[in-house]
Amino acid sequence: MNDITIADVRVAKHQNPFITNIHKYRYLYLLLLPGLIWVIVFRYLPMYGIVIAFKDYNIFKGINDSPWVGLANFNRFFQDNYFWPLMRNTLLISLYKIMFGFPIPIIIALMLNEVRNISFKRTVQTVIYFPHFLSWVIVGGLIVTLLSPDGLINGLITMFGGESTTWMARPEYFRTILVLSDIWKESGWGTVIYMAALAGIDPQLYEAAVIDGASRLQRMRHITLPSLMPTIIIMLILRMGSIMDAGFEQVFLLLNPSVMAVGDIIDTFVYRVGLEQQQYSFSTAVGLFKSVINIIFVVGTNYIAQKAGQESLF
Amino acid sequence: MRRESWQDNITQVVIYVILVVISLIVIVPILYTISVSLTPYADTLKRGGVILWPTNITFEYYGYVFNENSPVPRAYLITGIVTVIGTAISLLITAFTAYPLSKRYLPGRNGIMWIFFFTMLFGGGLIPTYLVIRSLGLINTLWALMIPSAMSVYNMIIMRTFFSGIPDSLEESAKLDGANDITILFRIVLPLSMPVLATLGLFYAVGKWNMFFDALIYINDRSKYTLQVVLREILLMSQLTELIPERASALPPQLPLQMATTMVAVIPMLCLYPFLQRYFVQGVMIGAIKG
User: Is B1's Cβ below 8 Å from some Cβ in A?
Assistant: First the structure.
């Protein structure tokens, strides 16, 4: 508003306002151009490519000339014997990760917030943020090594008189290993966002509470937690938006034939069927099914949060 | 009052103990990796594999990682190039997009913002994205590792938030002197944005250095393999033949070789990390204020 001068208004009267604006802000629009081209080519063109989920895509005919098949690819997936095991693995791994992994950063942040020794606090933060910056290849390699027959874990177990186990080949441990290693890698970094929210709480609230005789626990329950709630809700909504993502790279790297039955997830299935067997249409349909469930969950959680009078994303 | 402070002290002690334990859980695997890579394997075995401090330090296993047949040095170089050029491209395109979108008066700003925001909720998925990259002829080129992942919309929003915090008066006076928006961005706004550029630069650089999946599916030519793809072969598929020189008299043990390779990949991160740590926490703080 403050940029409109009388001269601009006069010009605008005689010209199409759209063109006037484009001209007036031409340098800003010029700056936007690379980003817009990028988002169209690398984000929206693939979205257009989703139509092959409803076609029998043939490389030589291209997207447009391949014949339509309606929902045939989806029916094939839903009727596949492998559909339910795949859904169960994906949802179980993802839900375990949310159940056990989501609260931990909040708890660590609350504990860090109570620490009065600043250099101790900084040291702990420096240490626990670090694994986030390691790749899943490195962390996967570490897990396999630590759990190998002559690795550290089995070494400790035999030292205390137990028997060593081939952890990575045992289906009953696979999901636990996924959840724990995810917690190891990401929980520390997950505290950052909550630390930011905690730093934003007005110290006067605490001072007033102390004067009123509130105990440490009462302060946490009536000031800290309510102040943290909007951040928690937003993080939860965002997390629900990836309910069908059980952690592609992690699972892909750790998956081995002996744990296939409990560890194969939708993403690894799409990779195998799509890129290794080149069933492009079918795997795109499976991928689209996954994205749609994700969207339903993020919108649904957002709606519930809104109805409950809580913070919401949009 | 006295009972309250006594309880306080107990709580403090419990919290300190828990936080120390958590830190140890993070440190132990890293300490183990360092120790195994530096200790003669016979010593490691003697201790039943329970080793958290190196003894009789040897750099023998690191020698294998850098032998003349090893794929690691070349992968290192390629990943270094992708990281440096890729991060520069990412920062430029992110700043170019974030700056106009930080201007409240720009017509169409909200609509354009939605175009970007929507891609955070929904995407084409693995196969359609792969087909686009392939039809652009990017397969087996290093561009495939730099361009499709050039911008993170999340990072762009963080940068936009930072830009909107810069007082308009600075830019207005430059405008009166006849500077256009592009000049202002380079001469005034970017120099004032060093903290956010450092933070996001670090995020992008770490992302490129650790990039695995894109490299796996877009690069089939072995001579262009990146560090993470080579690491996967060595660490997770136990393909160690290339690490063993042709004239080797005895086969080296697998575990310390793998741990030495891990260290070689992690060392740049370990060196840069303490130095840059304050920047990225700062960056997340900026983003969190007005996400």
Answer: no
Taking residues B88-113, report their average pLDDT: 95
- What 3-state class would DSSP assign to A55? strand
Q: What is the ipTM of this complex?
A: 0.91
Name which of A132, A137, A224, A239 to mutate to probe chain B: the one with the most chain B Cβ atoms within 10 A of its Cβ.
A137
Find residues 159-178 of chain B whose CB sits inside 8 Å of chain A.
none
Size of chain A in residues? 314
Name the residue among B85, B90, B123, B82 with its Cα closest to residue B219: B82
Identity of the residue in A141, A196, A248 whose CB atom sits nearest the CB atom of B235: A141
A271 at interface of B, judged by CB pairs closer than 8 A: yes
Provide the b/e sequence for A166-195 (b: ≥16 CB within 10 Å). ebbeeeebbbebbbbbbbbbbbbbbbbbbb
Helix (H) or strand (E) run with residue A210 in it: helix A203-211
Chain A residues lying within 8 Å of B35, measured CB to CB? none
Instruction: Quote the pLDDT of residue B4.
Output: 60
- CATH 1.10.3720.10 is right for the domain spanning B59-291: yes
Output the CA angle B206-B208-B210, nearest 5 degrees: 65
Q: Using CA atoms in the order B201, B206, B209, B213, what is the torsion angle rounded to 10 degrees?
A: -120
Residue of chain B with shortest Cα separation from A159 = B48
Residue A282 has pLDDT above 90, yes or no: yes
Chain B residues whose CB is inside 8 A of the A44 CB are: 119
Shortest alpha-carbon distance between residue A256 and chain B (Å) = 10
Nearest to A146 by CA among B241, B265, B31: B31
pLDDT above 70: residue B283: no
- CB nearest A287 (choices: B4, B125, B210): B125
B105 vs A contacts (CB less than 8 Å): 1-3
State the Cα–Cα distance between residues B162 and B112, nearest whole angstrom: 18
Probe site for chain A from B28, B92, B127, B143 (most A CB atoms < 10 A)? B127
Q: Is residue B29 within 8 angstroms of chain A, CB to CB?
A: yes
Q: Where are the domains of chain B?
A: 1-58, 59-291
Report CB contact under 8 Å: B266, A138.
yes
Would you place residue A1 in the very low, low, confident or very high pLDDT band (cuts 50, 70, 90)? very low
The superfamily (CATH) of domain A79-307 is: MetI-like (1.10.3720.10)
Predicted pLDDT at B179: 85
**What are the residue boundaries of the structural domains of chain A, listed by start?**
6-54, 79-307
Per-residue pLDDT band for A8 (boundaries 50, 70, 90) equals low
Residue A155 gets which letter from DSSP?
Answer: H
CB A178 within 8 A of CB A192: no
